[in-house]
Sequence to fold (343 residues):
Amino acid sequence: MTTNSAPIRWGILGTGRIAHSLATDLMLVPDGQLVAVGSRSKESAETFAKVYAAHGPVRAHGSYEELAADEDVDVVYVASPHSHHLEHATLVLEAGKHVLCEKALTLNSADSQTMVDLATSKKLFLMEAMWMATNPIVRRVVADVRSGRFGFPRHVHAELGFVADPDKHQRLLDPALGASALLDMGIYPLTFAHLLFGEARALTAQANIGTGPDSAAGGTFDLDLVMTGKYAGNELSTMVASVTSHSSRSAAIATDQGRIELTDFHHPSSAVFKPANGDEPVEIVGDEPVIGAAYGNEIVEVQRCLREGLLESPLVPHSQTLSLMRQMDMIRESVGARYATES
Ligand SMILES: NC(=O)c1ccc[n+]([C@@H]2O[C@H](COP(=O)([O-])OP(=O)(O)OC[C@H]3O[C@@H](n4cnc5c(N)ncnc54)[C@H](OP(=O)(O)O)[C@@H]3O)[C@@H](O)[C@H]2O)c1
Fold:
């Protein structure tokens, strides 16, 4: 299906914000082609398809079922709210297509395991769209920290959050659509610490909990969350996520020789090591260029895996996604956040 010379043919499921971000970067990847989009509304699919039509025809499907059945699609990017990822990824996998599925993979680890098991049994590629892990600067920082290039790492602090606007960001404030500061924002600091130090040995959390616009529908979710972690080498993490306050969006890794600082740590345009001894700061440069907004690097990784016949990416392996999903289950339970479907 994915021969070495032919372009990889992409379909996109959903026409929201992140669907546009990925489609924009897909235009920059030479051996990938957007060939189809699926939406709950034909009109929305057609509007989306027109935006990218200058790069080649994009078929507009008025249902996700039609997109899944499109024979000229190799891989589908699932860009719906995480409350619906399992349903939508299942549709695509059952139709025999590979899947790149937005984060969080699902609402909880049991559903993620179901999705992974299905992909594995069908011998299809599945990857959580954890684009931070495919970012060349993040990859270089992770390799440098692990090798001890900038000293012995002791602590990472990372934070991500902004004020969600109920008119613009309904998904972020509605537990029926998977709202959770942790699943939307906190997943990044949690994954960042995991990439640096390995699986956490202990995690604790404090949160403020809210209900959705329709409290009768049930479900509670974390609005603001702080977490601490401890890792195998006794490294520590402090992590912040919020949908009610603005964070610095930065990360800092403290070592016994200085500090590594990243602005917009989940898609940094630069990272710098500042030695404590007053030496000149060292810019940490990725081994490959960042493509577009860095979704391009994620696309390149998926395409590399498909061409090599891999069923999972070594940069975002299933075991890592599942481990982090289990941790997020535990954290949500400890702060009293619970979706209506889980009660
Ligand atoms: N990697 C990143 O940087 C990043 C950034 C933001 C979000 N995300 C993730 O991407 C996913 C989508 O986020 P988004 O911000 O793009 O959301 P969004 O703007 O609200 O778009 C979600 C799309 O999903 C489809 N959808 C299917 N069922 C839906 C339902 N019941 N209610 C609402 N929409 C539904 C809709 O497309 P149709 O109307 O066309 O069917 C909608 O446009 C989330 O899982 C989120 O965590 C990732």
